[in-house]
């Protein structure tokens, strides 16, 4: 843990700015450092480090690293890019950053959800424990509240949940004292977060050895395994449906509906499928358009629809576009054979993207999901990464592909000729159509598979029961002999079944001769029955062999169960010992509670004693203050008497005036004689008296402030409150003394 000052704040602070908007990050960095140290005129392609000694907050040294705009960019061909970027950034603030500040501008967030949702899927929990969200704004719009902004954006709520609901509003346009105040609040939040991480057993900052990116070696292995499983499942489904394509009735025309968000290449996909430039690729599509062409052995009709508002769109999809999507589905009446949902393969796919796709596919009809296939455009940008790995990295994309029945295809938009990728797509559509038409057949197959699984489960259950019975009766030799008799009976029953099979064969032969003599036309049917009986005979033989193997396996399992029983007894002994230790610990805890209760009573008595002492001190201070006040009044009376006395003599009787004149003349005569000798002594006496009065006020105020601070403060902060009260009292007494001295000098 780094060295801290007496006020429990970090002497050195290392911060990293994250976010998509480079200008907002730059303004935030300048506001934190208290001056313009980052260049706001242009964005840079590398991380920038700046350092400053911030004198307005305990004089601590602050280091800020500003990341570039594509720092957290997802690269489908290079999944480890984010991890390398984070490692290079952390090297710039050794030994590691105390906090990551995610900068989010307050304003219209529609169409920018992916800038916040993407990092959630790319960074792990280690980084979020050291993260604070900074909401920034350069002006003060009326009626805008950061809490309302959070409530309106679910993506922001998810980020705050990950980082422990730590956030701060920072106005980057503030300067001077207001700017220092809001930055000081940020420093306090960072100090609190670091203290919390340290109390949890951490170092208070993110070390280089810690993994902050979600893509690690173990994660890559899990993604590869899941991707392989998805690819195998898709291939099994295609093989099963491909065997039924030849038996299904041919489709005269394949109707294909292309949908998706804006700027994903839907029109270009339609041109590649038809092998013609019939759609306005590269230009916005405003109306649903139908085109037809013959491709290979298929007659195709393709309908291109306008894209709904997704990324970079600040408004919801207009009603006219939604009507055109519905109209495009009606052009494929009675329904399209395939709905191609086009998605870019080189971008992130967040929960907001999934919700948009689900919302707009509902416009087509309830049957849409049964005929939807996810078409990944720009597949040439995948590089060597399989599309299945890209799917497994994004939970929202997994949900979408599974919702479509694991139907997906990759398109290389650079290959305008189409070729094999178009033929493979049309084959998948044809297989999907067979699957939809032969739903009853698939349901039958699934039912048979389920029944076979149930049979396997019952067989396994029976095996478990046999193992349990043998475990219980293994020590009894007579029971084992009974089991062997049962096995022998089974063998006899199998022998009898073989004899029955032989008899059945004889009957079949006789039946064949009888049928040949009676009806020659049924010869083929009789041959079929013969083949069926032969197969049944083979199945019975195999069953007998399997039962023999099962018996041998059960014998081996019985031998293994002896060891398991011994281990169970050992575990029971260990459990009893552990229970005894738990009881001893409970007794120790009860003794500790009793000891703590006694200590609490002693502390309560000490507090009462301190309160009584404080009351005695208060009474002494009150007596002291009364003495001070009486002394001040006597001194003021003496001084005022010396100055006002000549005026009072004129207002009194003549006798008093005569006496005062004589006294004044005598005093003046003495002063004329001893002026030079007594004047320095009088000045010294007055100075000593003023110093003594000032010291008296300062000391009395300090004692009174300490007593009041000790009485008003809590038990734990009594010393600190007393010290603060003493300082405040001393200052107040000094000011009162100075004021009295000034008044005396003026008079």
- Alpha carbon gap, first and last residue: 62 Å
Q: For the CA atoms, what is the radius of gyration?
A: 46 Å
Kindly give the count of domains. 4
List low-pLDDT spans. Answer: 1-7, 644-662, 673-679, 714-718
CATH architecture term of the largest domain: 3-Layer(aba) Sandwich
SS-based structural class?
A: alpha/beta
Specify the CATH class of the largest domain: Alpha Beta
Would you give the CATH topology of the largest domain?
Answer: Rossmann fold
The overall average pLDDT, rounded, is: 79
How many E-type strands? 12
Biggest sheet strand line-up: 2-3-1-4-5-6
Q: At the fourth CATH level, what is the homologous superfamily of the largest domain?
A: P-loop containing nucleotide triphosphate hydrolases
Proportion of residues in helical segments: 55-70%
How many helix segments? 19
Name the shape in a single word: flat
Estimate the strand proportion.
Answer: 5-15%
């Amino acid at each position: 843990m780094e060295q801290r000052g007496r006020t429990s704040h970090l002497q050195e602070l290392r911060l990293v700015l994250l976010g998509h908007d480079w200008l907002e990050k730059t303004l935030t960095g300048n506001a934190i450092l208290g001056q313009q140290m980052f260049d706001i005129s242009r964005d840079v392609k590398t991380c920038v480090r700046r350092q400053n000694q911030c004198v307005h907050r305990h004089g601590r040294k602050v280091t800020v690293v500003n990341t570039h705009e594509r720092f957290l960019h997802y690269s489908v061909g290079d999944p480890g890019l984010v991890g390398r970027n984070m490692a290079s950034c952390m090297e710039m603030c050794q030994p590691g950053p105390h906090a990551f500040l995610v900068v989010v501008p307050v304003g219209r967030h529609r169409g920018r959800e992916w800038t916040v949702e993407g990092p959630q899927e790319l960074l792990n929990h280690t980084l979020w424990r050291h993260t604070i969200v900074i909401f920034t704004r350069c002006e003060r719009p009326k009626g805008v509240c950061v809490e309302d902004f959070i409530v309106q954006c679910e993506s922001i709520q998810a980020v705050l949940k990950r980082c422990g609901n730590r956030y701060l509003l920072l106005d980057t346009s503030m300067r001077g004292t207001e700017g220092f105040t809001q930055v000081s609040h940020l420093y306090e939040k960072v100090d609190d977060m670091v203290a919390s991480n340290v109390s949890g057993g951490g170092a208070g900052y993110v070390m280089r050895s810690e993994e902050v990116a979600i893509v690690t070696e173990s994660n890559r292995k899990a993604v590869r395994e899941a991707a392989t499983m998805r690819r195998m499942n898709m291939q099994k489904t295609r093989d099963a449906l491909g065997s039924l394509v030849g038996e299904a009735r041919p489709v005269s025309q394949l109707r294909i509906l292309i949908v998706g968000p804006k700027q994903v290449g839907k029109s270009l996909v339609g041109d590649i499928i038809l092998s013609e430039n019939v759609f306005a690729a590269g230009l916005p599509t405003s109306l649903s358009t139908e085109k037809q062409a013959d491709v290979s052995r298929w007659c195709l009709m393709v309908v291109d629809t306008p894209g709904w508002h997704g990324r970079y769109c600040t408004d919801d999809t207009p009603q006219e576009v939604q009507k055109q999507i519905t109209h495009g589905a009606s052009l494929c009446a009675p329904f399209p054979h395939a709905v191609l949902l086009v998605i870019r393969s080189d971008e992130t796919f967040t929960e907001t993207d999934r919700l948009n796709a689900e919302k707009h596919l509902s416009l087509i009809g309830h049957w849409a999901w049964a005929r939807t296939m996810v078409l990944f455009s720009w597949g040439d940008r995948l590089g060597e990464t399989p599309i299945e790995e890209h799917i497994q990295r994004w939970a929202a994309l997994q949900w979408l592909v599974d919702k479509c029945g694991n139907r997906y295809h990759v398109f290389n938009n650079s290959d305008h000729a189409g070729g094999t990728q178009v033929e493979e797509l049309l084959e998948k559509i044809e297989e999907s159509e067979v699957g939809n038409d032969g739903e009853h057949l698939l349901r039958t197959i699934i039912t048979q598979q389920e029944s076979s699984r149930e049979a396997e489960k019952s067989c396994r259950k029976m095996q478990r029961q046999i193992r349990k019975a043998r475990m219980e009766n293994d020590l009894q030799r007579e029971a084992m002999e009974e089991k062997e008799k049962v096995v022998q009976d089974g063998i006899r029953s199998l022998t009898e079944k073989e004899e029955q099979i032989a008899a059945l064969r004889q009957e079949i032969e006789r039946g064949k001769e009888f049928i040949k003599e009676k009806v020659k036309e049924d010869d083929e049917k009789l041959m079929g029955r013969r083949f069926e009986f032969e197969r049944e005979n083979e199945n019975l033989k195999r069953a007998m062999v399997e039962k023999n193997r099962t018996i041998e396996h059960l014998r081996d399992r019985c031998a293994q169960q002896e060891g398991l029983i011994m281990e169970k007894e050992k575990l029971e002994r260990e459990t009893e010992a552990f229970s005894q230790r738990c009881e001893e610990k409970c007794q120790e805890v009860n003794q500790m509670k009793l000891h703590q209760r006694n200590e609490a009573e002693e502390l309560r008595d000490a507090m009462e004693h301190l309160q009584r002492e404080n009351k005695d001190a208060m009474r002494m201070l009150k007596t002291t203050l009364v003495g001070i006040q009486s002394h001040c009044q006597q001194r003021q009376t003496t001084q005022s008497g010396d100055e006002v006395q000549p005026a009072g003599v004129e207002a009194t009787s003549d006798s008093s005036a005569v006496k005062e004149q004589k006294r004044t003349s005598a005093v003046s005569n003495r002063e004329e004689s001893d002026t030079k000798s007594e004047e320095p002594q009088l000045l010294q006496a007055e100075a000593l008296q003023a110093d003594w009065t000032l010291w008296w006020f300062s000391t009395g105020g300090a004692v009174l402030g300490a007593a009041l601070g000790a009485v008003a403060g809590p038990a734990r902060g009594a010393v600190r409150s007393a010290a603060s009260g003493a300082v405040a009292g001393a200052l107040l007494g000094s000011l009162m003394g100075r004021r009295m001295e000034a008044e005396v000098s003026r008079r």
